[in-house]
Amino acid sequence: MSSQQKHRIQVPDGLRDVLLEFSIAYLLEQPGDVIDYAVTFFTKLQEDRKTTMITSAEPTSPDESIMSNDEGKSS
User: Fold this and answer.
1) Using one digit for the tens of pLDDT, what is the confidence trace for 7-20?
2) 25 in a structural domain
3) Range of the domain at 26
4) Number of domains forming the structure of the chain
5) Rounded to two decimals, what is the model's pTM?
6) Is there a contact between 19 and 45 (Cβ–Cβ < 8 Å)?
């Protein structure tokens, strides 16, 4: 076995996916500065994920929403 095969690095699927998405967006838009573009791209990606997490944490049914609002009120 060669030393190159011994030190092979496994790239996690999530990293591969996000880098592919970034690469495609970069190649399509062809901005002037790759670093500035990367900062903007990954900042937006992070904000979108936070928004998705907040949205998915909200009650999904009207009953849950009513119960959550009523629980905080005293009679």
Assistant:
1) 889 999 999 999 99
2) yes
3) 14-54
4) 1
5) 0.60
6) no
